[in-house]
Amino acid sequence: MSNPIHQFVVTPIAPPLEIFGYDVSFTNSSLWMLISAVLSVVLISMATRRSSVIPGRAQMCAELLYEFVGKMVQENVGKKGASYFPLIFTLFVFILAGNILGLVPHSFTYTSHLIVTGVLALFVFFMTIGFGLYNHGFKFFSLFLPPNVPWWLVAFIIPIEIISFFVRPITLSVRLFANMMAGHIILKVVVSFAVAAAGMGAAWATLGVFPVLINVGLMMFELLVACIQAYVFAILSCVYLKDSVDLHH
């Protein structure tokens, strides 16, 4: 049985490159990030290039995606959060593309790496703080003290609010990376069973059909998980960014 962890190894695909002592080589992870970004831009641009009153299938899919994310932002951030739509839309499409392309054989799922999901989560975290300070100034820090809290609870509430605020990047990043990694490991293990059975003779090869059928079902399930995890990341980003619009909600 092949190592199910091997699919997550980041390997350079170009000559090694170091800048100020840091390895910044172009890797398989970088390649699939680039493919996801370019493919997303090309597909959406092609779908909306010729807008018509009666949309075709491609235009309809693009419009449904646009309306889906727009409604998500409006419901969770509010009307004032319309300026956040480009950010949430970009995050959602980038993560969704990475999750789905990761199901293609011999591809690389960059969302299964904590460093990638961690950077995305930290980006949302610092954007929340930055927009909060821009919109409210230092009053933004009143977020850590909900209104109408009894004075004798203040010493307990503030540390709890601070901790819950600063663990957001951890929970946001770990949820995505853990779900994608676990799903791909299970897929790899089940496929390995089918391959091993096929190499043990005709009788065992017949039994190998069952792991294949199970893997088809798991692929469908992973496709669903890929979409759900992109949605969860985007909607939680909306919830966190709402703090930069409404301090107490």
Task: Please specify the SSE layout and strand pairing.
Blueprint: E1 18-19, E2 22-23, H1 28-48, H2 57-76, H3 85-101, H4 114-136, H5 154-166, H6 168-198, H7 202-207, H8 209-241
Antiparallel strand pairs: 1-2
Question: Structural class, from secondary structure content?
Answer: mainly alpha
- CA distance, first residue to last residue: 52 Å
Radius of gyration: 22 Å
Main β-sheet, spatial strand arrangement: 1-2
The dominant shape is: globular
Which H/E pattern describes the elements? EEHHHHHHHH
Number of domains: 1
- The total count of helices amounts to 8
Which range best describes the helical content: under 10%, 10-25%, 25-40%, 40-55%, 55-70% or over 70%? 55-70%
Strand segment tally: 2
Look at the structure and give the mean pLDDT. 85
Unreliable spans: none
Strand content: under 5%
Key structural traits:
single chain; 249 residues; mainly alpha; two-stranded antiparallel sheet; 66% helix
Report on this model:
This protein has 249 residues and is mainly alpha-helical. The protein has one domain (6-244). Helix content is 66%, strand content 2%. The protein contains 8 helices and 2 strands. The protein has helices at residues 28-48, 57-76, 85-101, 114-136, 154-166, 168-198, 202-207, 209-241; strands at 18-19, 22-23. The protein has a two-stranded antiparallel sheet with strand order 1-2. A hairpin with a 2-residue loop joins strand 1 and strand 2 (22-23). Helix 3 runs antiparallel to helix 8 (209-241) and helix 4 packs antiparallel against helix 6 (168-198). The longest helix has 33 residues, at 209-241. The protein is globular and about 70 Å long.
